[in-house]
Design goal:
The chain has two helices and 29 strands. The protein is an all-beta fold. The longest helix is centred in the first third of the chain and has 6 residues. The N terminus is likely disordered.
């Protein structure tokens, strides 16, 4: 496998913030396929991406690939080490309580499954790495269910999996259910949600919020914040950006080193529904439904009609109030899709000189030192060191 090493440092003149990328490595996927949904392991040792399509000899539509960032070696997730084909899977999320584990969803024999995976065993060649947890999430013996979203938090050195799924079991009325599972204990908080939670993320139970996206009966998205989802889920903050005539596609919650709680989201005006770009909005006070302001236009998103592809179009830096995103620049001869950042505290937009102009999904490592960038052209991925001064 080829790797291309590029070193670039971008100095931004006339601004208070300087952002640079160094040691950019090109990771090639020779069998093609769209490379999307990047995420770094908590330690930063591994990068995971999802590959959509690929070589004609592979009938799997979607698969998860681990990349060892020390040597750029790739590992496809399979149901077992003896399997010849990769598992059709997606939505990998990292365990918080157990650093060697992650969780993912998969399609097997026409049924949605939920797995806990010991990814370090998989990478080292140990055959015992996949544990099925489908019954823990959907309930014992349930069939035909579909997971809308899930998120991981931790309490008492145990993972807590919050989930929302639709119960489509034969002979039952279809129901959207919201609940959590931890250490053998499964609880359904809302057994019959009228509309599902389509996006879900939580920072921590101690000092964070659970942020959710829910579609109402008019097919508009509202953003919900729960401060105590396990014991007081009915106590909610609801933001309704559609009151401002906005269609919301992606929201992010950021709690950083300051005392401020920031919420950001990507949206577009209703009359621009068919356009492929969005605008970036920020809410500096989620308790105030009128405290919504637009900060940036022309943000590129990937297939906004597919909920599974959201949450990778913009990213907060974990240590600063800086948001990273891919911006579409319309020029006379071609459109460019380049990396930008917005410094919320200094109210400035920054173009980051990477030498790359065909980008889409991105991810930033937990320590804020690395960034992954997916290419629009199939089979293209870059990883680099992120420097902020």
């Amino acid at each position: 496998m080829k790797s291309l090493l590029i070193a670039i440092f971008s100095t931004i003149l006339f601004t208070q913030t300087q952002i640079g990328l160094t040691n950019i490595q090109y990771i090639e996927f020779k069998d093609g396929g769209r490379i999307l949904r990047p995420t770094f392991s908590p330690s930063g040792e591994y990068l995971v991406v999802e590959q959509f399509g690929g070589s004609k000899s592979n009938s799997i539509d979607q698969k998860i690939i681990f990349i060892d960032l020390k040597n750029l070696k790739k590992f496809q997730v399979k149901k077992s080490s003896a399997s010849k084909k990769p598992l059709k899977c997606s939505d990998l999320k990292w365990s918080i309580a157990e650093p060697s584990y992650a969780y993912l969803t998969a399609k097997l024999s026409g049924r949605e499954r939920f797995y806990k995976i010991h990814y370090k065993n998989m990478i080292s060649g140990n055959p015992n790495y996949m544990i099925e947890w489908t019954d823990n999430i959907f309930g014992t013996g349930k069939r035909g269910n579909q997971l809308h979203s899930f998120s991981i938090t931790e309490y008492g050195n145990k993972d807590i999996i919050l989930f929302c799924f639709v119960d489509q079991a034969k002979g039952f009325v279809t129901q959207n259910q919201f609940g959590f599972y931890t250490d053998g204990d499964r609880n359904i908080i809302y057994p019959n949600l009228e509309n599902a939670f389509t996006q879900m993320e939580i920072n921590s139970l101690d000092d964070g919020y659970l942020s959710l996206m829910q579609t109402d009966k008019n097919n508009n998205n509202m953003i919900i914040l729960m401060e105590d989802p396990l014991d007081d889920a009915d106590s909610q903050i609801k933001l309704s950006p559609y009151n401002n005539n906005l269609i919301v596609y992606e929201k992010k919650l950021n709690v950083n080193t300051s005392d401020d709680l920031y919420l950001s989201f990507l949206a577009k005006k209703v009359e621009k529904k068919k356009e492929k770009i969005t605008e970036l909005y920020i809410v500096e006070d989620p308790f105030d439904n009128d405290a919504i302001r637009k900060i940036v236009s022309s943000i590129h998103i990937v297939d906004e009609g597919n909920e599974k592809l959201n949450n990778f179009n913009h990213q907060w830096h974990p240590e600063t109030n800086i948001i990273f995103y891919i911006k579409r620049i319309i020029e006379e001869k071609q459109d460019r899709h380049v990396l930008y950042a917005y410094d919320v505290e200094n109210n400035e937009e920054i173009e980051i000189n990477t030498g790359l102009d065909d980008l889409q999904h991105l991810a930033i490592s937990a320590d804020g030192h690395k960034i992954a960038l997916c290419g629009i052209v199939p089979g293209r991925l870059w990883v680099g060191d992120l420097v902020i001064n």
